[in-house]
Predict the structure of DUF3822 family protein.
Amino acid sequence: MNENNSILLIDPNFHPETAASCSLIVKIGSGNLSYAIINNDEARVIALYDEPECTNSIQKFNQLLKTDTYLTLPYAKINVAVNTGNIAFIPNELFDEDEVNTYTQYFSEDSAKQVFLQPDHAAGFTTVFSLPLLTEKSISGVWSHYKVYQQNQGLIALAKNFEKQNLLLDFSANTFEALVFNDGILQFQQHYEFDNNEEFVYYLLLITQQLNLDFNQTSVSVSGIIHLNDEKWSSIKKYFTNLNFLNIDIPLNSYVIEDMPKHYYAGLLSIYTCG
């Protein structure tokens, strides 16, 4: 752990000149930043960087671009998942690509002009989003080829195997993402910031009330920075009877992070399955 509470784990056998056979996956959250390098030929995680708590993640990303040479290597594939408030989910039967301006009219003024469309035929909706302008400039200025996804796209892909009703909670240090699925289809997604456990419980119960979730029938999967002795875990368990850490069903050799709880990086590693 470094002075800024970040970690960098690297396989000592990784050589930068092999980047052309690797993928880079980056997750820029609202208050956290992480990336991983994956050897495509061996399906093996060979490096992982994580800063679970940073005040301005895009500013931290810009700093890393100047000091971390691993970020600017010529990778075969680059997937970037970004937290953005400029997002809308349009049912496919109502979606019209010629009417995109209608869906983006309420995006914030600092929204970048480029609009990304991610159709999900299984879920029945198309995600329409754009990045904050500063984020778009930073990403486009460093890589010649990359794909952008909304922050939770990897988790949504993982959830397609969920049965019945499932609440997925993905934690960073002081934020969490809440996603609700019915038979693997996304019904709700929202981002929350909290200062203490009391605030977290407030949001948890608010979500439960607003969506009419049944404490006994709703399965809860948790990922990110949370553990068995965490008061957040205890609070969730107080209300929901079916609670588990998210199982990462991705065929990746994660030797480099084998000493870390697997659910810590489910949100990050799931981005590898996108595209």
Q: What stands out?
A: The chain has a mean pLDDT of 89. The first strand starts at residue 7 and ends at 10. The longest helix spans residues 197-211. Residues 175 and 211 are 20 Å apart (CA to CA).
